[in-house]
Amino acid sequence: MDEKTPRSASSAIATATASLWETLRPYAGRVVVTYYVAVLFGVNDGAFGVILPRIKTHYGVNEAVVSVLFLCNTAGYLSAAFVNGLIVHRLGQSGALYLGASSHLLSYILLLVAAPFPAMAVFMLFLGFGMALEDAGVNVVVAEMPYATTLLNLLHAFYGFGALIGPIIASALFADSLSWNVVYMILGGLALINLIALFVIFRRISPADLTHRHASTPPTDPSSTPIKTPTHLLRAAFSLRVTYLGALFLLAYVGVEVTIGGWVYSFLTEIRGGDTVRMGPLVSLYWLGLTFGRVVLGWVTGKFGEKRMIYLYLVVTVGGVLVVWLVETVEVDAAMLFVVGAALGPVFPTTISIASQVVPKELFASSVGFLTAFGSGGAALFPWLTGTIAVRYGIWIMMPFSIALVVVMFAFWIFIPSPKKPAEQLAAKEGALASSETVVRVEGESGEGTIV
């Protein structure tokens, strides 16, 4: 009997693994390419914090002026947030991804030439627009798949992995006395692979295969369900509490995440007096913590409850930032950066996971696309504010500023709805769609009614 038990356990694991593979095999290409997009985003954000002081020196500007790059990037993100739903309706989710990836690649090519600063600012706007479309698209695509919560956590973990290697790449270039814009040569090559991979994978996927079929909202028959015009869909999506509060919550969250990741290198070199080459890998500890949090703590979050665990993570984040701010030892700061990264790690994917459970399927792409793109605008808005304030008070101001953003997150999280039971979700869906007066059918390529 003792010999059979391990064999039975091994057999059960093998059967479960085979079943998991059979379920996810049709989505394998989409998983790989969306995770690659996440890595590219991470490398972009992780490297930018390290090259920022070099950009400032190259153009001979202070923190307030160089922070305009963040502001223009924000404008790109926010503009994409408000038109993402319309673009998806016109071009489909695949078309929106192609457009975003094309803008992304073009922006890197333009940034590579190190044009005059005003032109750089304009290029950052196009970069933000393209990345926002991709960001919204990959989150929606992954959330449509089976095991969406696990896959979303891994998606954002791959972002953390990219952000982990970004500072290492930038620091290695500086160690070889190469210019800051060489980073954009590398990023441009990665973005070209990204565009080609998206086209290869998604060109064979019909719009119907990208509709919301795997969230916990009850399925409906598209031939009998009235579907609103794009304007009505957007209006209905924005009326949901999880859409507008989730967008504001993620705006603050991404602001904290990228403010720390983008400015802590300057904090460690200017305030702590750290070596400019050695501090790059130390910043990577923060992104390593972010990756760890999304891989490991994502499971813990689901097991013990999303709402209560996010409260805990926010408290830990405040404590870790306080230590980095007040303890003047670089080694302690590095350890706490890992802790802060780990605490922040599960927050974004957990928010998307909750939205996938509470948003009606007809409104899912519009709702999650908006809150993802709008929220990601925090990656530029709050680092810009940090740099502007730092001109007067010094870069140390990033620490209390980050704490204030976490407090704002805490307040918004109180009002984020908890995942509902299927019956409650159905009632919420009917209420969200009840105000429709104009009903149309959106014809897919196969002639069936679909939401694209």
Describe this structure in words.
The protein has one domain: Growth Hormone, Chain: A. It starts with a helix and ends in a 12-residue tail after the last strand. The C terminus is likely disordered. With 452 residues, the protein is mostly helical. It is built from 17 helices and 2 strands.
- What CATH calls the topology is Growth Hormone, Chain: A
Largest sheet: 2 strands, antiparallel
Strand segment count: 2
| Computed Rg | 22 Å
Alpha-carbon distance between the termini? 55 Å
The number of helical segments is: 17
Q: What would CATH call the class?
A: Mainly Alpha
Rough outline: globular
Helix content class: over 70%
CATH architecture: Up-down Bundle
Oligomeric state of the chains present here: single chain
Helix-strand makeup class:
mainly alpha
Question: Can you give the mean pLDDT?
Answer: 82
What labels would you give this structure?
single chain; 452 residues; mainly alpha; Growth Hormone, Chain: A; two-stranded antiparallel sheet; 17 helices; 2 strands; 78% helix; 1% strand; disordered C terminus; transmembrane transporter activity; membrane
